[in-house]
Amino acid sequence: MSITREFLRHPMLTGAIAPSSPRLAGTMTAGLGLERATSVVELGPGTGVFTEAVLALLRPEARLTAFEINPRFASSLRARFPQVDVVTGSAERLPVEDVDVVVSGLPWTAMTADRQRRILDAVTAALAPNGRFTTFAYAHAAWTPPARRFAASLRSRFAVVERTSVVWGNLPPAFVYRAALPVAVGRTRHGQPATATA
Fold it and tell me: Does the pLDDT at position 190 exceed 90?
């Protein structure tokens, strides 16, 4: 499965022209407590670079659910990782709750503000109170309006947000956001409206 081919076919869905590097995958999965997690969700796994890194840290009894909107990638992921529950569909509606960690490879800067909001609301609703969220962004786009909007949205939804140094061993170079302690935004875990607390 070629990510370059899928990018050319669906650039707004794929978001990357090359797979993420093992070095970025290591940064994405470090310090999240994956070794102790029982429920993990991955958004936009693509070719499975982050999936492989997550599985290397998870206990055998832990559950990993991956949401992939591209049916070609989803089919390939099922064949490669039979132990992963691969869902073909959008990350906007996560039918899970009390998730320990959400790992995201979604192309945030390619999204509209409304779609960013809906997905982040779904993430905060799915996470356990002490849950963690990690995603990455390309360094060259960090100061674009969509990227700055996304960073602000993260800070409004998590009590703790940190940004790593740039991972130069990736094409293009990228950095990782790690967020923890979700606050109530958009909806509660029971689907009722809620008000932002930060």
Answer: no
